[in-house]
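This section describes the prediction task in plain terms. A model, or a person checking by hand, is given the sequence of a single protein chain and must write out its three-dimensional structure as a string of tokens. No templates, partner chains or ligands are provided. The sample shown here is typical of the held-out split.
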Amino acid sequence: MKGMKIISPGGIELEINEKGYVVDREKFDWFYLDKSDADVEWECDVKHLLVKERRVWGVEVEMGGSSKEVRAETVVLACGPNSHLPDEARLSPIKHPSDIAWAMEAVVEGDGIGESDYFEYFVGSVAPGWKATFSPLGGDFASAGVYVRGVRSPFDFFSRHMERLRKAKGEIKIVEMFEGGDTIAAMPWKLVGNGVAVCGGAGAQSGIMYGMRAGVILAESIAHGDLSLYQKRWERELMREYKLGRKALNMLMKMKDEDIDRLAHALVDFDFSSLRGNLYLKAFRIFMHILKKDPPLILRLI
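The expected answer:
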């Protein structure tokens, strides 16, 4: 993909030309399983953790209609934000669970809808607190979804998003539906316990890049024999970015659609590809551009 378009409630498009990819998750998993020399069991359902004297020492899994216990020196929970397993480990890996953006997503089919070179992200009342999406998958297929904070079942938002897409892109048929959650604004909290660690969306480490980095740090900490290094290193590297991201999303959630349109209008001529430096320097450059274009808007945002 060439990049993405962030689309305001009034239809103002901010085009960001930064290469991206669509990941086929099933093929991704199988690709690495084929390369792995580890003893991997595929499509097993973890029912419970095995806990003794407050230490996690394994899991109870169900596979092919039968259950068995699997012992492990370290258990890694990468089970998403809607799992009971962290509770069994007496961990609270998500600091603000009420801020999980609950999601409804579908693979959709329509004539040529997967041929665009850009992801589309819609913000505002279409999906309060985060985003609605349209992601081309090639040919006649795409994915479409909504991620809504503060609403456990976003079906109504999904239905309205689909109506909007059909008006813009023609007849679209839903092929397959999924539900889940995005922890991008929920913040990581307690990620490590006795014999157990939480990684990825289950620990509010939302985003592919952040989840992958968390996995690398965790693997290196396990190899080093000290799980506590995982949380320390992750916080040192990435916690400031997450705090800034949460502030931005909280601001977005409070904004009215007309203010989001004003913000988009102020940024429509901004060259996002020119941004350099760390996240704070990038945010400062965007802030100064808005201040130049629409000074009163800054007062409404802060």
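For orientation: The longest strand covers residues 173-182.
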